[in-house]
Amino acid sequence: MFSWILRGCRDECSATDQLKQARDVFVAKEAVLQKKISQEMERAKEFTKSGNKQAAMQCLKRKKYYESQMNQVGSVQLRINTKEKMIADNMGTK
Question: Which ranges form a coiled coil (predicted)?
C-alpha cells in the first residue's frame, strides 16, 4: 500500500545494479534488432532479384520499423547512462 513512499528509500547500490541490468537487456535487444535489420535487407535484395517488388517493399517497411525501434532503444540507453552518471556523481559527493 505504501510502496510509492518507499520507492525513494532504495539504496543507491541497488539502483546502479538495476540500471546495469536494464542496460544489458537493451544491449541484447539492440543486437537482436540489428540482426533483424540485416536479415530484412538480404530478403529485400533476394526478392528484388527475383522480380517480386511487393515483397521487397514489405521487407523494407519492416526494416524501417526495426530501425525506429533501434532509435528508441538507443535513446533509452542514453537515459540509463545519464542516470548511472548522476548516481555515481551523487555517491562521490557523499
Answer: none
